[in-house]
Amino acid sequence: MQSVGPVKIIGPEVNDEVMVPLATYEQPLWPSTHRGARVTAVSGGIHGVVIDDRMTRSVLLEASDASEALRLVSELKRKKDEMENVVGRHSRFTHLLDFHAQFVGNLLYLRFEFKTGDAAGHNMVTAAADQLITWIQQAYPEVKYISISGNYCTDKKASAVNGILGRGKNVIAEVTIPQKWVARYLKSTPERIVELHIKKNLIGTMLAGGIRTANAHFANVLLAFYVATGQDGANIVEGSQGFVHAEIRDVDLYFSVTIPNIIVGTVGNGKEIPFVQDNLKTLGCFEKREPGQNARRLAVIAAASVLCGELSLLAAQTHQGELMAAHVKMERS
Length: 333
Known about the structure:
Layout: E1 2-10, E2 16-22, H1 29-42, E3 46-62, H2 66-78, H3 80-90, E4 95-104, E5 107-115, H4 122-139, E6 144-147, H5 161-165, E7 168-177, H6 179-186, H7 190-208, H8 218-228, H9 236-239, E8 243-249, E9 252-262, H10 274-282, H11 293-317, H12 322-331
Parallel strand pairs: 1-3
Antiparallel strand pairs: 1-2, 3-5, 3-6, 3-7, 4-5, 7-9, 8-9
Helix pairs in contact: 1-6, 1-11, 3-4, 7-11, 8-11
């Protein structure tokens, strides 16, 4: 594990310079992400903002027929306050935000959305969903339990629903880099980076049949960040689904990453490990703040780190042979 940076971040959750820990076996990832951190810092910093914040669990119930399933959902919508009270009686930090329903014949998929404070919330939302199922069955005994998870969550699987309805923290990180700094630090031009993004990230991903994604390697930096900060590494499956957007502004490069499904927490499983606590403290995510603020700060830092790695890799790929030369130099010496 090594730290890269400092990464300069500006925004509501983070207005700071931080050294970012990354745990990876891919050695070129550290200097590449560091290069992205340098060029964004001299350009004024990365603007980061949390667009949305929710954790989900879908349950699967079975009604006698489709009409009965529809009637149940209609009644649940009128009883949302009661459902919120059910959740609140069993947890101080879990709050029901909303729910969505899908029907397949007489099968009913309910996707519950919760606030979970500073926890990533996997277990919290499962516990809350358990309580809601019990409450539903008491009020509607004809409804049959099938599963605590109906795969409409969607947990650790590539899907469209997470990007559309949200799961985790939806974060945007963006920066405008002057043309001269693109040339000096990235050894490229804004035009070449934008062209590569269009032809590689957009067209290439469409050819591959990617699901709500257009990026070069979000998963690389995100997994390294997750491991260093005690997160559930399997969540890079949905975390790696995100978008780069790049364009020319006058002669400069506007570059952003939108990551709809960053699932991180600063409390819970994995956070008791000493090196994880040290890293969270270094990132300023172990402070006394309002519930949820440390986790939101961590998510913004994650997105900013992904931007640094994404920008540097795309710049490298505008030069034939540069990517492989870096791997040979650092990993095969």
